[in-house]
Amino acid sequence: MNAHARPADPRKLIKGATGDWEVVIGMEIHAQVSSNAKLFSGASTAFGGPPNDHVSLVDAAMPGMLPVINKECVAQAVRTGLGLKAQINLRSVFDRKNYFYPDLPQGYQISQYKSPIVGEGEVIVDLSDSETITVGIERLHLEQDAGKSIHDLSPSLSFVDLNRSGVALMEIVSRPDLRSADEARAYVTKLRSILRYLGTCDGDMEKGNLRADVNVSVRKPGEPLGTRCEIKNVNSIRFIGQAVEVEARRQIEILEDGGSIDQETRLFDPNKGETRSMRSKEEAHDYRYFPDPDLLPLVLEPGFVTELEGELPELPDAKKARFIADYGLTPYDASILVAEKETADYFEEAVKAGGVSRNAKLVANWVMGDVAAYANTAGVSISRTPVSAAQVGALVDLISDGTISGKIAKDLLVIVLAESYAGDLRALVEERGLKQVTDTGAIEKVVDEIIAANPDKVAQVLAKPTMLGWFVGQVMKASGGKANPQAVNDILKQKLGV
Amino acid sequence: MSVDLGTVRRVAHLARLAVSEEELPALQGELNAILAFVEQLSAIDVSSIEPMTSVVPLTLPLREDEVTDGHYPDKVLANAPEAESGFFTVPKVVE
């Protein structure tokens, strides 16, 4: 029985003609191990390259070639297992999974079947400030990637490139603990973040380095699990959500029409927004696994695992808890900042820059607000924007000590970004004359002028105090935005008597 | 344990062996003879013995993560019946 079972959540049910349906999702994630060489050969794992260049005779399955396992790939699987709070199996076995396909020259994939290197673990997924789910991990095993078939280079031939053949993959199998497309997306996002923190997979979905097989079934709430369909090789987080939605809808329609679901493998077509059957894979499901006679059991020394455990970086959950405790951030803000390690590091650097302690909440707002918006538009990570973490810290200091207003800070940031200004912000404020006017005498002079020039508005504001905003706007405009807004407000109220 | 004709047909197909209907009964007889021979092993009680996957008392040797091989596509393709522009080519297989 599933430890993470929860009652159906009415908000997540899908409306059908015969009532509400619950969708149940489990996932198999294939994550390419970050390593220099392949799992069982000394060929490079580098992406791209001329066809069949990153291929050894082992990867091409030439007769007599024998696999020798890469120690780093084993270490990466163990690190990932530790990051998923999972059981590490000190003894695991490699098996042959037999099937025929042109991009699988061995005629079998070396995988792990009965004795995987990593057993049960879990991933904690934050859905909102108030909702967190725990997704069970059933297992993680090491296996070889296949080559690549290209079908559009010739009308009658498929072209086969074995550059990926033999690259190490981690297959991470979740329990069927997900109950909506949103949860499925959030789970993959979180898992990807953990892998990237660990440095065990770069999570690059565009290059196919992280892809998902999504198992979807539907049921009436409280009923046993329905028959599932497996949607193969979905390669973006957005598509995972779409695939779940259209597949659940398809199954509900069939069941409501009195039909039944065939357990099968399907493909998601993002252009048509539908899933369709992959008939050719059906009979191939008889994989006739058996232990690979070319490989001895993989036995790990307990010390090897302990050493890796001692070297693990701070992971997103721990970092988030620390950000909440140390910086007083809300759980939601903290989870956004820790999603990418680079962003979290940038934020911390901005908070601590120059050895000054500053308001972390303000820093977080600038990082997640204007800086993130710019990074998003420019298509770069936050740490690669022209504004440095130290400059964000300086910006917050300038606001905090009253040198500039929040409004001017925005303008200042625009200048820094547009001109890739790398210098001291305080000097820039001086140089461009952006300093906030706090001299009450100067502000009073402007206020007096505006009151004198607008007797009709003065009459109005006495009857309707909300009109004060109009005066504030006029004074700010006359001061070029540099007057301290609070001072303007106070002086206006005093002079107008409202 | 014995296999029926349908199982022989399916196993042959999974192994991509072209076996005609006429050959099936003879293969079924041979396979069943092999299975019966191996079945003698079930007379031995092995419940307290760990399955042996190798006859050598060694564990898996590990290799360092260094690129030491590859960069010879011509050698990789040397025995290919058909190749084009550095790729193996095969009759079209499309999902």
Protein model, in words:
- The complex is a heterodimer of chains A (498) and B (95).
- Chain A is of the alpha+beta class.
- Helices cover 38% and strands 18% of the residues of chain A.
- Chain A has 15 helices and 17 strands.
- In chain A, helix 9 (389-400) runs antiparallel to helix 10.
- The radius of gyration of chain A is 30 Å and the shape is elongated.
- Chain A starts with 13 loop residues before the first strand and ends with a helix.
- Chain B is α+β, with helices and mostly antiparallel strands.
- Chain B has a domain at 5-42.
- In chain B, 33% of the residues lie in helices and 9% in strands.
- Chain B starts with a helix and ends with a strand.
- The chains are: A alpha+beta (498), B alpha+beta (95).
- Chains A and B meet through strand 3, helix 1, strand 10 and strand 17 of A and helix 1, strand 1, helix 3 and strand 3 of B.
What is the 3D form of chain A? elongated
Tally of helical runs of chain A:
15
| Helix content percent band of chain B | 25-40%
Indicate the mean pLDDT of chain A. Answer: 92
Radius of gyration of chain A: 30 Å
Low-confidence stretches of chain B: none
What is the subunit arrangement here?
heterodimer
Blueprint of the fold:
The complex is a heterodimer of chains A (498) and B (95).
Chain A: E1 14-16, E2 19-32, E3 69-70, H1 71-83, E4 91-92, E5 95-98, E6 108-111, E7 121-126, E8 132-144, E9 148-150, E10 157-161, E11 168-174, H2 181-198, E12 210-219, E13 229-234, H3 237-256, E14 265-269, E15 274-277, E16 290-291, E17 298-299, H4 302-310, H5 316-327, H6 331-338, H7 341-352, H8 360-378, H9 389-400, H10 406-419, H11 425-431, H12 440-453, H13 455-463, H14 468-478, H15 485-496
Parallel strand pairs in A: 13-14
Antiparallel strand pairs in A: 1-2, 2-11, 2-12, 4-17, 5-6, 5-16, 7-8, 8-11, 9-10, 12-13, 14-15
Helix pairs in contact in A: 1-4, 2-3, 5-6, 7-8, 7-9, 9-10, 12-14, 12-15, 14-15
Chain B: H1 5-14, H2 24-39, E1 62-63, H3 73-77, E2 83-84, E3 87-91
Antiparallel strand pairs in B: 2-3
